[in-house]
Every structure is written in C-alpha cells, then in structure tokens.
C-alpha cells in the first residue's frame, strides 16, 4: 500500500518524470504542467502533498501556492517548492506564499524522499490529533447533554410530588419530553383515560390504548417509541433513530421518566378514589341523617 498521494507540478516534462521516478515506489503520483492545470485537477484529485515549481508559464508557482492556501480543501496540504532559484529572497517569497519547504534543483533523491515523508507524516499526525480532539469533544458534549437531561429528570422528581391531578402529571411529562426535543403524547389510564398531545379518537390514542392492553413495557417502531408503566403510557413520535447513542440514552431516560410518573400517577388515582369514597360516605351519612330527621318529624306529628 502506497504511503500517500503526491501531485507534481512542473512545466518541464523531464523534471516531472524524474520526480515521479523517485517517488513512484512509495507514493501514488499525478502530474500537472502548470498552475492552472494544478488548480483544475484539485476539483477531483486530493493529494497529500504538492511539489510545485516556481517558474512556469501562466501563473507562477508563488501565485499558485497563494491560491491553494485560499481553498479550504488545500489550505493545510503540504507544499514543497522545487526550484532552480536559490537566493534568500526567492526562498522567503516561497514561504510568504504559504510553502512548507523549499528544495533546489538539481534534486537530491534522498533529501526529496526525506522531506516528502516528513511533511506527509506531519499532516497525518495533525489529522489524527484533530480527530482525537473532535472525538474527545464529542464525548464531552455527550456527557454534558446527558448530564443536562438527567438534571431535567431530577427536577421532575422534585416537582412531581406537588402535582395533584392527572392533567398536571401529563403536562409535566410532556414538558420533560419537549426539553429533550421530543414530540410526545401522554395517556394516564384512569377510569376514563386522560390524553394529552392527541385527540381521543386519534390514531395515536388508538395505538396507546392497544399497547396498554398488550402488557408490553417498551416497543420501538422506527422513529416512534411507546413506553408503558401503568398508569402512564408515553408515545414519542420523533425518536432520533439515526443517532444510536442519543437514541439509547433517551430511551433509558424516558423509561425512568415513565416509572417516576407512574408512581405519582398511582398515588393521584388512589387519592382521587379516596376522595370519591369520602364523598360517597358523606352522602350516605347525610342521607341517613335526613332519613332520621324525617322519621323523627313523622313521629312528632303523630
């Protein structure tokens, strides 16, 4: 396997042939006769290093190098000038144009190979460092995102005990899902199921009712995920199926969210049932008192 790709730019065919012969055993090489052709070739050819003559017809090597540095694709591609001009002024102009190195003709083969290898390796090291830095940044960002999401779950835990009805509970679950960037529907399974985020006769409502009765806890349907933790059923309509890491993280967060909401939901339904029982008990007592009053009144009249 070749160690990289080198573009040789020189108007002299014999110079291109010589440089190609020196490099062919270790590198894939391509040739351009002048600066214009070099810039045109870069639309489809992406070299790891460019050997560039200074004196060429049309635009000079210096101007070609300046143009290379203005292009995003070649802004950091190593450029080595190969020129018969060896004055300090010529070298300085080459480096000012953006070159990484400067070789003079006639070329020493060992020096050429050493320079090419050195600059390509530097480029590979920079790319590896940038990739590692990007990966580290991605990990850090994911950790920060996960921390933020967990913070929202913790805040939900703190606030959920103060919620006293199923509509407030459903709204709180929807709010957390929205903070996650998710489009959700929530069903609280009471005597008459309470729905938020969809209509009673909607497709989403029918899916949640069907899933509730299936006994399954979690089901994934592409970008849709349904989580059931009685009495809560949560339907997410835009899960990030193309982002495996975020998908898995959100799925876990939502399962925890559903469980926390479920515990409070059971408490709310129990409280509702007890209130209804108290109402019924009071009605019975009132009815008994009224019956006794009526009975007493009847006895007095007799």
UniProtKB/TrEMBL annotation:
This is Response regulator. Keywords: DNA-binding, Phosphoprotein, Transcription, Transcription regulation, Two-component regulatory system. Gene3D superfamilies: 3.40.50.2300. Residues 5-120 form the Response regulatory domain. It comes from Thalassolituus marinus. Pfam families: Response_reg (PF00072). The modification 4-aspartylphosphate is found at residue 53. SUPFAM superfamilies: CheY-like (SSF52172). SMART domains: REC.
């Amino acid at each position: 396997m070749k160690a990289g790709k080198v573009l040789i730019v020189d108007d002299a065919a014999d110079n291109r042939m010589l440089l190609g012969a020196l490099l062919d055993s270790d590198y894939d090489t391509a040739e351009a006769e002048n600066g214009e052709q070099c810039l045109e070739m870069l639309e489809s050819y992406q070299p790891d290093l460019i050997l560039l003559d200074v004196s060429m017809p049309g635009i000079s090597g210096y101007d070609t190098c300046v143009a290379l540095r203005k292009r995003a694709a070649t802004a950091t591609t190593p450029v080595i000038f190969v020129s018969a001009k060896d004055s300090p002024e010529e070298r300085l102009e080459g480096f000012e144009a953006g070159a990484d190195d400067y070789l003079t003709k006639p070329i020493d083969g060992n020096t050429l190979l050493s320079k090419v290898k050195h600059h390509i390796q530097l480029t590979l090291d920079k790319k590896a460092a940038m990739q590692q830095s990007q990966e580290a940044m991605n990990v850090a960002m994911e950790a920060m995102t996960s921390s933020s999401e967990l913070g929202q779950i913790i805040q939900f835990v703190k606030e959920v005990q103060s919620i006293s009805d199923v509509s407030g509970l459903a709204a709180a679950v929807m709010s957390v899902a929205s903070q996650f960037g998710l489009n959700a529907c929530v069903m609280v399974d009471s005597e008459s199921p309470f729905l938020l985020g969809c209509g009673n006769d909607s497709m989403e409502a029918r899916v949640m009712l069907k899933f509730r009765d299936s006994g399954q806890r979690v089901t994934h349907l592409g970008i849709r995920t349904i989580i059931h933790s009685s009495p809560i059923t949560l339907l997410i309509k835009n899960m990030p199926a193309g982002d495996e890491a975020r998908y898995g993280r959100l799925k876990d967060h939502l399962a925890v969210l559903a469980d926390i909401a479920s515990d409070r939901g059971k408490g709310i339904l129990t409280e509702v049932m007890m209130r209804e029982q108290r109402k019924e008990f009071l009605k019975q007592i009132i009815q008994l008192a009224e019956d006794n009053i009526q009975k007493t009144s009847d006895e007095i009249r007799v």
